[in-house]
Design goal:
Domain Aldehyde dehydrogenase (chain B): 41-487, 535-759
Helix content of chain A: 40-55%
Keywords (chain B): Oxidation, Oxidoreductase
Oligomer: heterodimer
Number of helices of chain B: 28
Helix content of chain B: 40-55%
Enzyme class (chain B): oxidoreductase
Strand order of the largest sheet of chain A: 7-6-5-4-3-2-1-8
Organism (chain B): Kaistia hirudinis
Active site (chain B): 266
Largest interface: A-B, 37 and 40 residues
Order of helices and strands of chain A: HHHEHHEHEHEHHEHHEHEHEH
Strand content of chain A: 5-15%
Largest sheet of chain A: 8 strands, parallel
Largest sheet of chain B: 10 strands, mixed
């Protein structure tokens, strides 16, 4: 069981609570008693776009925070060690130094929340990020389908942890959720949790495959009961990835779970979040439904690859008043 | 605050909408605004004006012309002058104007939104995202009805000059709800915006000019209550449409009684918001936000009474309190504000007093911790728990951001509590069980039910109340009746009192056993309470028979019997049809007996009387046919979902039948009423009452459940006024001379029952005039049940 309590980050500032979820014994009530109304969820998220906005310095600060919450990710068949090292470099310096200074943050270490890679590149990334304080996250359970034998998946987790991954992103067997076999899903996630040891476990529900918000809500509960430190929407490989309504249901489950058990679980939307505007919408929803504790990388991450570039350009615009060229910002 | 500091607090910060263009426009109005009459801008004749302020700051925005009776008169004259040409245009030509207005409103949408927010205090999000788009949608939708009027409303015509008085809570939206249907169908209007919020109406008038709308079709007279009264009392206005408080609605009902003006009222509410234990509680919490903290709770259909199933009450309230902490109250021009300013200090004071009273009466106050802006007219989102059904705050309309919560145990109790109010505007039902929600919705006595939603509106879906929330619908096909009338009304002849022959004292010789015609109450023949009878005479004055002299106690007993026959309203349409056919069958079997009786009373030839009996049998067949065919509609508003427009019975209808033709008039009025599920108290023709009393035996042999039809004979007009006064009676139909109709309308103000007073002749023998949809529509009210769906 991991409960590392409060993490003291590089600039010596305490960043609020970390996830701490030992899980609870399997219970059917929260799953069977769950009620989700899709139309109401859509109304809530679409209305929020008009109810909340941040402008000027507030927008800049929120974008910096969004950037700090990014799990900078590469999960492609053509990944190489060189590509991963480049990504790590970007994670350590996501914001051009002159911009960071213009924003009044010159004395801060601004980094992304983590770097997320396949198991094969964990050691490379750990090495590249040495001394930065940026954790390496690995997708380690037969990603993205998660259908390799459980023993293989558990072995992969252990190998990633051994290579230095501090965070493990696992994928659930969607079949268990689609057939209502919640107990089996619980047991599987529980086994992964044990394999993770001290590493934080982020559980990917594959919400695009689960399709209904009711399924999403139920799977969220099972994942949390089984001890997930984070629940995460998607692999990024489904046809539909993170959405605001899905987010609403997952974070409400996090809130209710905390109310019931006292345990704190983080949230990670992944896939399809590519613009600064999208990111702000997510942060506003998190602030409204979960509160400020979740507006920091200990409890909130974006799984994204192209989001960073757009945030940088928006911050550039904030500083200079001009819309920036992509070529003015270093690529990952 | 530096970016580094914001990174610590993660606050939202200010996000102001610019009001520069809006203020420029307000300045363009000059030192004092003008009235829009006959297509021109005119000063108020009296030269008087009043200030309109921004409730968020208290600053004066403009000086508004105070229109007086002379200005109203000029506007009415302009509207009357414009009427014939406007009406004579083709539907397509009128549609082009409405389409142009819709486009103009869209093109200037932000200006409208900012002006509205400045003047009213509502959040810019709401005026920008909700009010103004609905306004444009309303003009688009009604451009369509203008286009289709010639084909879809071929037998109807405009009413004439419409006086329209609107409230301050949705200034432009209420204008659109009034103006769009009126002018689409060929009426012309004189509209008075609310005193607190005149500005967007003036901006709309500018759009009318830009659209090239013919002069006088739309006239805007700004002013106060006195201006409104001048409209209500103006003799050349044909129709009054009012949205506002029930109190003022009642005054208008009394003031227009007997004037021949058609009237629709959209009044107050205390709408229930019912949360069942199987609801998505978080969704329901957001529903409360949209129900009572939308527009600072200044919404006639606000879900202000939370009825929460006991087992989940505490959990629900805890979630709600947490949610309230997140609501942001402040500058309505800030784009990230949930609640803006209360419209006026007077309203703020009323809210404060009522909340204080609620606490005094035992309710527990909950308000979020955040502080309100120091200046301006603000009130925090408020929840009162433990407010029992008897407490003042659970009964009166607060018209502010105050919800009261109480519990229920069972679905039946939820319905009972929900209906335990004089109002009947709207309701929300929250449950994830379809069979439960769809069982509850029809049982709620109100014009709109939202299932798992609240405060949803669309131009294609009718909106309006039951009971003391008013009558008439706005929006959709069901809203068109309020601005049109049957074409035959234009050349109709006023009804005169039926001549009464002088009593000669002779009796018609007959060998038959003496028959005593009593009253017919609860399926039994009952002696009149007073113990008096009145004679029914031949034209020569001889006595044909005697009928009971009913009085107000007999009316009371008849209404009580009708109340107990509530099962009829729930009977299947097939069942009601069968009984109507059976009544026809039994009347037909006695056709010659009825014909003889009619001839004895009227002196008409036997074959003419036989024709009346045959027409009556046919009419019963017609309503037997209609009973299972007067169906509602399935609206498709722009959501993923449907709105079911259900034709529901008015309830207990009092009917004062036409004096003549006595039998056909009796049948033509009670039959559509009971075919649609009403229970009726009928006052038959006084002059020819035996036609109805002879019918007792027809009813008794036709399996009609007791109390569905009750008959009280006697002084028709006096009894009709008693019916109109009775507060358990939901509607009254009166067919007779204008003077008595006025008394009926006046007496109806007590519970604002809907009155159909027809004071002109009608050819009852002609099916086109004597039966059909017109009657069925009057016998029903449309309830719209919104059902958003999706998994």
């Amino acid at each position: 069981m991991t409960d590392r309590g409060l993490r003291v980050v590089a600039e010596g500032r305490v960043q609020g609570p970390e996830p701490s979820n030992p899980g609870i014994p399997f219970a059917a009530d929260p799953i069977e008693g769950l009620r989700v109304n899709l139309a109401a969820a859509e109304r809530r998220t679409s209305a929020l776009a008009g109810r909340r906005t941040v402008k000027k310095d507030w927008q800049a600060a929120w974008l910096v925070r969004a950037l700090q919450c990014i799990d900078l990710t590469t999960l492609s068949g053509d990944d190489t060690a060189g590509r991963v090292r480049r990504l790590c470099a970007k994670a350590m310096h996501p914001l051009r130094a002159d911009l960071q200074a213009a924003l009044g943050l010159a004395d801060r270490r601004i980094t992304t929340g983590a770097v997320c890679v396949y198991h094969r590149f964990v050691a490379t990334a750990v090495d590249a990020l040495q001394g930065s304080g940026i954790p390496v996250a690995a997708v380690s359970t037969g990603f993205p389908a998660g259908l390799s034998p459980l023993a293989t998946r558990l072995e992969e987790i252990r190998a990633s942890v051994a290579d230095g991954a501090e965070e493990i992103d696992i994928v659930i067997t969607r079949e268990h959720a689609l057939t209502g076999n919640w107990r089996a899903l619980y047991d599987e996630i529980r086994a992964c949790k044990e394999a993770c040891g001290p590493a934080h476990m982020k559980t990917i529900l594959g919400t695009g495959d689960l399709q209904t918000l009711r399924n999403v809500g139920r799977a969220s509960w099972v994942a949390m009961m089984a001890g997930s430190d984070f629940i995460k929407t998607s692999t990024g490989k489904e046809s539909v990835n993170a959405t605001l309504p899905v987010t609403l249901i997952m974070i409400r489950a996090i809130r209710d779970y905390r109310e019931m058990t006292g345990h704190v679980v983080g949230y990670k939307p992944a896939g399809g979040i590519s613009t600064a505007k999208d990111a702000l919408a997510y942060l506003a929803l998190i602030k409204e439904e979960l509160g400020n504790d979740w507006l920091q990388p200990n409890l909130f991450r974006f799984g994204a690859s192209s989001l960073l570039a757009d945030i940088e350009r928006q911050l550039d615009h904030h500083v200079t008043g001009r819309y920036a060229s992509f070529s003015h910002h270093a690529m990952a | 605050m530096s970016i580094a500091e914001i990174l610590e607090t993660m606050e939202y910060g200010p996000a102001p909408e610019s009001d520069k263009e809006a203020r420029d426009w307000i300045r363009s109005l000059g030192a004092e605004t003008k009235l829009f009459i006959g297509g021109a801008w005119r000063k108020a004749k009296s030269g008087a004006s009043f200030e309109t302020t921004a409730p968020a700051t208290g600053e004066v925005l403009a000086k508004i012309a105070h229109g007086g009776a002379a200005d109203v008169d000029a506007a009415v004259k302009a509207a009357a002058k414009a009427g014939p040409a406007w009406k004579a245009l083709s539907g397509h030509q009128r549609a082009r104007y409405l389409y142009a207005l819709a486009r103009l409103i869209q093109r200037h949408s932000r200006l409208f939104a900012v002006v509205e927010t400045l003047d009213n205090g509502k959040p810019i999000r709401e005026s920008r995202d909700i009010d103004i788009p609905l306004v444009a949608r309303h003009f688009y939708h009604h451009a369509g009805w203008a286009q289709l009027m010639d084909s879809e409303l071929a037998d109807r015509e405009p009413i004439g000059v419409c006086g329209q008085i609107i409230p301050w809570n949705f200034p432009l939206l209420m204008l659109a709800w009034k103006v769009a249907p009126a002018i689409a169908l060929g009426n012309t209007v004189v509209l008075k915006p609310a005193e607190y919020t005149s500005l967007t109406a003036l901006l709309f008038a500018e759009m009318c000019q830009k659209a090239g709308l013919p002069d006088g079709v739309v006239n805007i007279v700004t002013g106060d209550g006195a201006t409104g009264e001048a409209i209500v009392r103006h003799p050349e206005i044909d129709k009054i449409a009012f949205t506002g408080s029930t109190e003022v609605g009642r005054i208008i009902r009394e003031a227009t009684a007997g004037s021949g003006k058609s009237l629709t009222l959209e009044l107050g509410g205390k709408s229930p918001f019912i949360v069942f234990e199987d609801a998505d509680l978080d969704a329901a919490v957001e529903g409360v936000v949209d129900a009572i903290w939308f527009n600072q709770g200044q919404v006639c259909c606000a879900g202000s009474r939370l009825l929460v199933q006991e087992g989940i009450h505490d959990r629900f309230v805890a979630k709600l309190l947490a949610r309230m902490e997140k609501l942001r109250v402040g500058n309505p021009l800030d784009k990230a504000i949930d609640m803006g300013a209360i419209v006026h200090p007077v309203q703020l004071q009323r809210i404060r007093e009522l909340v204080d009273l609620g606490i005094e009466e035992g309710a527990t106050l909950h308000q979020p911790a955040a502080r309100l802006p120091e200046k301006g007219c603000f009130y925090p989102p408020t929840l009162l728990t433990g407010a029992h059904p008897a407490s003042t705050v659970a009964r009166v309309e607060i018209f502010g951001p105050v919800a009261v919560a109480t519990t229920f145990r069972t679905p039946a109790e939820a319905v009972e509590l929900a209906n335990n109010t004089e109002y009947g505007l709207a309701a929300s039902v929250w449950s994830e069980t379809l069979s439960l929600a769809l069982d509850i919705a029809p049982k709620l006595k109100c014009g709109v039910v939202w299932v798992n939603g609240t405060n949803m509106f669309d131009a294609g879906v009718g909106f309006g109340g039951y009971k003391e929330s008013g009558f008439g619908r706005e929006g959709g096909r069901e809203g068109l009746a309020a601005y049109s009338r049957p074409k035959r009304m234009a050349k109709a002849v006023p009804l005169r009192p039926e001549p009464q022959p002088a009593l000669t004292g002779d009796a018609i010789g007959s060998a038959a056993v003496d028959r005593t015609a009593k009253l017919y109450i609860g399926g039994k023949q009952a002696r009149p309470d007073g113990g008096y009878s009145r004679p029914v005479l031949t034209p020569a004055g001889a006595v044909v028979g005697e009928v009971g002299e009913g009085n107000r106690k007999d009316i009371r007993n008849a209404v009580e019997a009708a109340r107990k026959a509530a099962g009829w309203s729930g009977a299947s349409e097939h069942n009601r049809a069968q009984i109507l056919y059976y009544i026809a069958e039994n009347l037909d079997a006695r056709a010659s007996e009825f014909a003889e009786r009619l001839s004895a009373m009227t002196g008409k030839r036997k074959q003419d009387s036989a024709r009346e009996v045959a027409a009556s049998v046919s009419r019963l067949f017609s309503y037997g046919a209609w009973a299972d065919k007067f169906e509602g509609a399935v609206h498709r508003p722009p959501i993923r979902g449907v709105a079911l427009a259900m034709n529901e019975p008015v309830g207990i209808l009092g009917i004062a039948c036409p004096e003549s033709p006595s039998l056909l008039g009796f049948v033509s009025t009670f039959a559509p009423a009971i075919a649609t599920g009403n229970r009726v108290v009928v006052i038959p023709s006084a002059r020819y009452a035996l036609a109805a009393t002879d019918f007792y035996q027809v009813f008794e042999t036709s399996d009609l459940p007791d109390g569905v039809v009750n008959i009280v004979t006697g002084d028709r007009d006096a009894l009709a006024a008693e019916l109109a006064k009775h507060e358990e009676v939901d509607g009254v139909w009166y067919f007779g001379p204008a003077e008595a109709a006025g008394r009926v309308e006046k007496a109806s103000a007590g519970n604002l029952k809907q009155v159909w007073a027809e004071t002109v002749e009608r050819d009852w023998f002609n099916p086109a005039a004597g039966e059909g949809r017109e009657f069925l529509a009057r016998a029903t009210q449309v309830k719209n049940i919104w059902i958003p769906y999706g998994e």
